[in-house]
Protein backbone atom coordinates (compact mmCIF):
# COMPACT_ATOMS: atom_id res chain seq x y z
CA UNK A 1 0.00 0.00 0.00
CA UNK A 2 2.89 2.34 0.69
CA UNK A 3 4.20 1.76 -2.82
CA UNK A 4 0.80 2.72 -4.27
CA UNK A 5 0.68 6.02 -2.43
CA UNK A 6 4.29 6.87 -3.20
CA UNK A 7 4.54 5.76 -6.84
CA UNK A 8 1.08 4.61 -7.91
CA UNK A 9 0.14 1.53 -9.91
CA UNK A 10 0.01 1.57 -13.71
CA UNK A 11 -1.47 -0.95 -16.16
CA UNK A 12 -1.20 -0.57 -19.92
CA UNK A 13 -3.73 -2.04 -22.32
CA UNK A 14 -3.13 -2.29 -26.07
CA UNK A 15 -5.90 -2.52 -28.63
CA UNK A 16 -5.47 -3.61 -32.24
CA UNK A 17 -8.01 -3.82 -35.00
CA UNK A 18 -9.18 -1.85 -37.99
CA UNK A 19 -11.36 1.05 -36.90
CA UNK A 20 -10.92 0.40 -33.18
CA UNK A 21 -10.77 3.67 -31.23
CA UNK A 22 -10.76 4.76 -27.61
CA UNK A 23 -11.21 8.23 -26.13
CA UNK A 24 -11.67 9.73 -22.69
CA UNK A 25 -14.78 11.91 -22.37
CA UNK A 26 -14.79 13.55 -18.94
CA UNK A 27 -15.12 10.70 -16.46
CA UNK A 28 -15.98 8.10 -19.09
CA UNK A 29 -13.88 5.87 -21.32
CA UNK A 30 -15.52 5.59 -24.75
CA UNK A 31 -14.59 2.46 -26.73
CA UNK A 32 -15.43 1.88 -30.40
CA UNK A 33 -14.47 -1.76 -30.84
CA UNK A 34 -16.27 -2.85 -33.99
CA UNK A 35 -19.72 -3.21 -32.49
CA UNK A 36 -22.73 -1.34 -33.86
CA UNK A 37 -22.60 0.95 -30.81
CA UNK A 38 -19.92 2.55 -28.69
CA UNK A 39 -19.23 1.24 -25.21
CA UNK A 40 -19.07 3.81 -22.42
CA UNK A 41 -17.39 2.85 -19.14
CA UNK A 42 -17.46 5.07 -16.07
CA UNK A 43 -13.97 5.57 -14.67
CA UNK A 44 -13.97 4.81 -10.92
CA UNK A 45 -13.06 7.56 -8.51
CA UNK A 46 -9.33 7.68 -7.80
CA UNK A 47 -8.24 6.38 -11.21
CA UNK A 48 -6.71 8.34 -14.07
CA UNK A 49 -7.22 7.02 -17.59
CA UNK A 50 -5.34 8.27 -20.64
CA UNK A 51 -5.37 7.14 -24.25
CA UNK A 52 -2.23 7.44 -26.39
CA UNK A 53 -2.56 6.12 -29.97
CA UNK A 54 -3.53 2.45 -29.50
CA UNK A 55 -2.75 2.29 -25.80
CA UNK A 56 -5.00 2.79 -22.75
CA UNK A 57 -3.08 3.77 -19.61
CA UNK A 58 -4.79 3.27 -16.24
CA UNK A 59 -3.15 4.82 -13.15
CA UNK A 60 -4.20 4.79 -9.52
CA UNK A 61 -3.05 4.30 -5.94
CA UNK A 62 -5.22 1.23 -5.25
CA UNK A 63 -3.93 -1.89 -6.99
CA UNK A 64 -7.24 -3.75 -6.86
CA UNK A 65 -9.20 -0.88 -8.43
CA UNK A 66 -6.66 -0.54 -11.24
CA UNK A 67 -6.71 -4.27 -11.93
CA UNK A 68 -10.51 -4.55 -11.77
CA UNK A 69 -11.08 -1.64 -14.17
CA UNK A 70 -8.50 -3.06 -16.61
CA UNK A 71 -10.29 -6.42 -16.50
CA UNK A 72 -13.61 -4.72 -17.29
CA UNK A 73 -12.05 -2.83 -20.23
CA UNK A 74 -10.41 -6.01 -21.56
CA UNK A 75 -13.73 -7.88 -21.35
CA UNK A 76 -15.29 -5.46 -23.89
CA UNK A 77 -13.28 -7.10 -26.71
CA UNK A 78 -10.88 -9.85 -25.54
CA UNK A 79 -8.06 -10.69 -27.95
CA UNK A 80 -8.88 -13.40 -30.47
CA UNK A 81 -6.38 -16.10 -31.35
CA UNK A 82 -6.43 -15.97 -35.16
CA UNK A 83 -5.63 -12.35 -36.00
CA UNK A 84 -4.86 -10.97 -32.54
CA UNK A 85 -7.54 -8.27 -32.72
CA UNK A 86 -8.96 -6.97 -29.46
CA UNK A 87 -7.79 -5.49 -26.16
CA UNK A 88 -4.91 -7.09 -24.29
CA UNK A 89 -2.50 -6.23 -21.51
CA UNK A 90 0.82 -4.85 -22.75
CA UNK A 91 2.82 -7.67 -21.16
CA UNK A 92 0.35 -10.38 -22.22
CA UNK A 93 1.35 -12.88 -24.91
CA UNK A 94 -1.40 -14.22 -27.17
CA UNK A 95 -0.62 -17.65 -28.60
CA UNK A 96 -1.77 -17.51 -32.20
CA UNK A 97 -3.52 -20.35 -33.99
CA UNK A 98 -2.98 -21.36 -37.59
CA UNK A 99 -5.80 -20.70 -40.01
CA UNK A 100 -7.71 -23.10 -42.27
CA UNK A 101 -4.74 -23.76 -44.58
CA UNK A 102 -2.90 -25.60 -41.81
CA UNK A 103 -5.97 -27.68 -40.91
CA UNK A 104 -6.27 -29.25 -44.37
CA UNK A 105 -2.84 -30.91 -44.27
Considering the chains and any ligands shown, give keywords for the structure:
single chain, 105 residues, 7 strands, four-stranded antiparallel beta sheet, three-stranded antiparallel beta sheet, alpha+beta
Structural commentary:
It is globular, with a radius of gyration of 16 Å. It is α+β, with helices and mostly antiparallel strands. It has a 4-stranded antiparallel sheet, covered by helices on one side. A 3-stranded antiparallel sheet has the order 2-3-4, with no helix packed on it. The protein has helices at 2-6, 63-76, 100-103, and strands spanning 9-16, 21-25, 28-32, 39-42, 47-52, 55-60, 86-89.
How would you concisely characterize the structure shown here?
With 105 residues, the chain is of the alpha+beta class. Helix content is 22%, strand content 36%.
Task: Provide the fold topology.
Blueprint: H1 2-6, E1 9-16, E2 21-25, E3 28-32, E4 39-42, E5 47-52, E6 55-60, H2 63-76, E7 86-89, H3 100-103
Antiparallel strand pairs: 1-6, 1-7, 2-3, 3-4, 5-6
**What is the helical fraction, as a range of percent?**
10-25%
The poorly predicted ranges are none
Strand content: 35-45%
N-to-C series of helices and strands: HEEEEEEHEH
What's the helix count? 3
Class of secondary structure makeup: alpha+beta
The major β-sheet equals:
4 strands, antiparallel
User: Looking across the biggest beta sheet, what order are the strands in?
Assistant: 5-6-1-7
Would you count the extended β strands for me? 7
